[in-house]
Amino acid sequence: MAKHFQGRTDEKGVPLTQWPAIQLEAAKYPHFVIVVLNEDEAMTDRQRRWYKGVCLTGLSDWNGETKDEWDYRLKIECGSEIFKVLKFTYGDMVYWRPESISGKSKKKMTEFIENILSKSITESWPVYPPDPDLRKVM
Predict the structure, then answer these.
(1) Among 20, 51, 63, 95, whose CB has the most other CB atoms within 10 angstroms?
(2) What is the pLDDT of residue 42?
(3) Considering only CA atoms, which of 47, 78, 73 is closest in space to residue 59?
(4) pLDDT band at 138 (very low <50, low <70, confident <90, very high)
(5) Are strands 85-90 and 93-98 parallel, antiparallel or unpaired?
């Protein structure tokens, strides 16, 4: 599962971040990608909270499927252009899973949220738009 790290740079542009933690996480995989976005491009905390707290929780409470099941379903049905499907192997078993929302840009998350809201209308899902102030910053 992908991890999301945030950090800042000092006045000279030197990253002030958790390099040891990033190196430990990267060492778990034979191949990895590090994406660097500036604060204006990065997904906002409010977008993340709406998706995980409002959307996934509401859908899970509505029909009893887990948040993970809804996360998978939404990424396939509403985010197939945004989330790559990754292959995982465990012994002889092969699993396919869409990538995490971590590292997605504000623009991509806005597109994903809009797709979810459109689909919720046609499917009668109890998903409600983020508050109007959130939409201004997306």
Answers:
(1) 51
(2) 79
(3) 73
(4) very low
(5) antiparallel
